[in-house]
């Protein structure tokens, strides 16, 4: 099969992998090296670093052949789709050729499971090893790892890749038992634990090396292990897990394995699918609200049980309100927490105010050391002042009595029904 035809098939098959962000990697370039590549430049597949840089990644599967029969997967063993497979040399050549033409800055490589998990993982590692050792490639590499693979192969992957990811697939083990009986959360989490342990061991070795060689800064210490950490992905809506189940699993994964990101993928029907799967696609708005909730878990100090707590008869228990963002939803259910005084209250309280993000709160805390906060300061910070006003007190503002009823506020901020339908298409 021609390489171009393989690329068309395997790039299309990789589109279901959402976890392709490149944040957190060490900055590298080819200065002082013998090869090519950079993980720190400015920008196929676009991902965004925390500083706003756009990173273009070649996002492909090594192969879409797979021995597993996951009901929700387009590449399952019984699926009637065109199949293709790259050799490791072809992936290396494509990556270098695309980089030299300024199409990409890195590689996102996944694969169906062929022969055995160890064989598949070994093929992925071979690609990364060849790029790093044979060609001194210094761009970004993200490898999707195989949960059942040997721990030494995972360790080798971490030595060459910037980020590793292992898909948890579904929020609960019951869901896996029904739709992917060959997979097990215990095996997946064991692999996550191995990656975390390796990462922490390498970090400790580097700290020890810096202490020993502090007087000789040019001495080489041990290399970094997956410096951009690990991530995972789960499918939303393929089975009856609630948003509370999903966020509970998400919070547990962050706490237990120090993941950098959990990605959510709204279920979409596939050809010749199992009768156990829904006939309709999952709302993209649900996926969007889960991402907003994930942000609250990671940066705003919310607990998973707070975000989906009941209190509105219009919302199914355990589910997120699709009409308003989860931060505003929490504020409407907890009016006794407000108003928050922008000039006196602590950072955790300020972070609960709708319309105020982490950067805005940090700037407000800095400003109020020298002057009293006024509404004009929120405008200057480009904060969501319309959302914040019913919930705050500052030098020249107190919320009006008319703003008190939560139902009225919800009606003010909820999008029109037509907009909701447009978003979900």
UniProtKB/TrEMBL annotation:
Residues 56-292 form the Elp3/MiaA/NifB-like radical SAM core domain. Keywords: Iron, Iron-sulfur, Metal-binding, S-adenosyl-L-methionine. Pfam families: Radical_SAM. Residues 203-228 are annotated as: Disordered. Coiled coil: none annotated. Its cofactor is [4Fe-4S] cluster. GO terms for molecular function: catalytic activity; iron-sulfur cluster binding; metal ion binding. SUPFAM superfamilies: Radical SAM enzymes (SSF102114), RuvA domain 2-like (SSF47781). InterPro entries: Aldolase_TIM, DNA_rSAM_put, Elp3/MiaA/NifB-like_rSAM, rSAM, rSAM_sf, RuvA_2-like. SMART domains: Elp3. This is Biotin synthase. It comes from Salinisphaera orenii YIM 95161.
